[in-house]
Design a protein that fits this description.
about 10% strand; alpha+beta; three-stranded antiparallel sheet; globular; 6 helices; about 110 residues; Arc Repressor Mutant, subunit A
């Protein structure tokens, strides 16, 4: 079977646009590093269902609020989660539908 090389014109426009952009590729690598922590994946799994406050996440994951806050800070810096305040309580949710899509596709990939 002969291997067919992909010529540049066949590349997806986003790939063609970013192929030589080292900064973008580094940002993608950093994003995947954030996904590389089990605790953060567990938090994303909870937030994939619905928004949660720190105390509920800590209780559900059997961890301290301090540990959860630390991981949420990393997720927020990576723009994976967003926060909204309701009175004294801060609720966290996935930042946008892209995060849910990445998570869903990863789960589907693992399930195959």
């Amino acid at each position: 079977m002969e291997h067919k090389c992909i010529i540049e014109e066949e590349l997806h426009p986003i790939l063609k646009e970013n192929m030589d952009n080292e900064e973008t590729l580094c940002e993608v690598a950093e994003l995947f590093k954030v996904f590389g922590d089990t605790t953060r994946i567990r938090i994303i799994f909870l937030l994939f269902q619905h928004e949660e406050c720190v105390c509920d996440i800590a209780r559900k994951l059997n961890m301290t609020q301090s540990a959860i806050s630390h991981q949420l800070r990393i997720l927020k810096q990576a723009r994976l989660v967003s926060a909204r305040r309701e009175g004294k309580t801060i609720f966290y949710a996935l930042a946008d539908h892209h995060i849910g899509t990445i998570f869903r596709q990863a789960m589907e990939h693992i399930s195959e």
